[in-house]
Amino acid sequence: MAKYTAALDQGTTSSRAMIFDHSGRVVAVSQKEHEQIYPKPGWVEHNPKEIWARCQEVLDEAMSRAGAARDDVAALGITNQRETALVWDRNTGEPVYNAIVWQDTRTDRIVDELARSGGQDRFRDKSGLPLATYFSGPKVRWILENVEGARERAEAGDLIFGNIDAWLIWNLTGGTDGGLHITDVTNASRTLLMDLRSLSWDHATAQTIGVPTSMLPEIHASSEVYGEVSLGALKGVPIAGDLGDQQAATFGQTCFAVGEAKNTYGTGNFMLLNTGHDLVQSRSGLITTVCYRVGDQQPVYALEGSIAITGALVQWLRDNLKMIQAAPEVEELAATVEDNGGLYIVPAFSGLYAPYWKSNARGVFAGLTRYVNAGHIARATLEATAYQSAEIVEAMRADSGVELDSLKVDGGMVANDMLMQFQADILGVPVIRPQVAETTALGAAYAAGLATGFWDNQEDLRENWAEDRRWEPTMDAQTRDHNLRLWKKAVTRTFDWVE
Questions:
Q1: Residues 128-166 as b or e (16 or more Cβ within 10 Å = b)
Q2: Backbone phi and psi for residue 452, each to the nearest 5 degrees, phi listed first
Q3: Per-residue pLDDT tens for 31-45?
Q4: How far apart are CA 293 and CA 422, in angstroms?
Q5: How far is residue 140's CA from residue 210's CA, in Å, rounded to a whole number?
Q6: Per-residue pLDDT tens for 51-103?
Q7: DSSP assignment, residue 110?
Q8: pTM of the predicted structure, to 2 decimals
Q9: Where are the alpha helices (DSSP H) in 339-476?
Q10: What is the DSSP letter of 282?
């Protein structure tokens, strides 16, 4: 009888495999980073073959560390960095170009061209999304227009597209030898190409953007049995869960009721608010997305606030400025000062996402004086994450009318006590961390386990959730309002930088 479920969490900077028991506790984990490729300013790429190699390694290693055999594992769930677009040859399995990462801004001219007729919200009614460089569809068009012969090969039926989940499932189920070309509703909802109501590809939109529909994967539920792993330590295990990373984290946080929200702190920050079966169009700069779909049940929708750069700003301090040697050191450096010294960092490296959606914005240091030192820069780096999240909460309140009474948090940065306290202060509500903070992988494992009967229902999953720590706000309202006003003033300085 199976004792575990497994998850493959393919993220922006690393790939991780995790093994969970029935109570949702971590049994084993393996994680490996992959290269970040920056060919030009604003361009971000990954090598798909390197990602596939790292994924195979971490899956086998996690199984070994768990001391688990194939029969011990009920199912494998997949979760992935969303919007990162990949085109490959279905006959050879070879990518025609590197994966273009969600942060990449090279499609700004395509986006501007599409917006000339109908504006930024041209496809919002069907897709729930504004026109932005963030989403997959324009990235596919860029590949077809810039890789020699790619459009002809695509129209001949030889090239196929997917977000990273589709690439992994195709390879895990056999690749050129019968690999399944599928995705789930959450990933499909991040392409600009899916109709949110019918949960099917919208052919008219695909034609307008310039993506042949023959390239697109089949759309499935987030929790159902798709096929079996064809290689490695998990050979024969059903693949039964597939969610984009932020939807997976929402599932892992068991935000199953309308009005429940979570915020994930990773490379970027992503806050999702469950709106149930109601498809709520945002008036405040958020996006409407599929939250999850279990089997043949009705889809559950969400409002999402997407922030491009949060943890990535800490990595920038480490890798570009060499101010720290490891990401956790940012808290120690920030603790050497009492406040930000008047410095506000707006990390619009990839433009601004929610609630502004300005692809032509770029990052700024505002309020810089001779007084500012490395400690202030570290502190302003952490505060930038909290301020951006506060703006998302403000937009969600405006759209939903729901006042947040607490915020569930997860992801790598929630280990940073200073950041979590400042987040509580600037929101004015408690911030709550669960015992399993890496809820992205847990959500994928939950989806897979539900589909295979490892868990009976979603209430079983709720019973697994447990609080680890809570931060209560201590900042007075006057200070909070003053800080937020200066933050918003700094944000305006990023607008329209790229001409």
A1: bbbbbbbbbbbbbbbbbeebeebbebbeeebbbbbbbbb
A2: -110, 5
A3: 999 999 999 988 999
A4: 34
A5: 8
A6: 999 999 999 999 999 999 999 999 999 999 999 999 999 999 999 999 999 99
A7: H
A8: 0.89
A9: 374-400, 417-427, 439-451, 458-464
A10: P
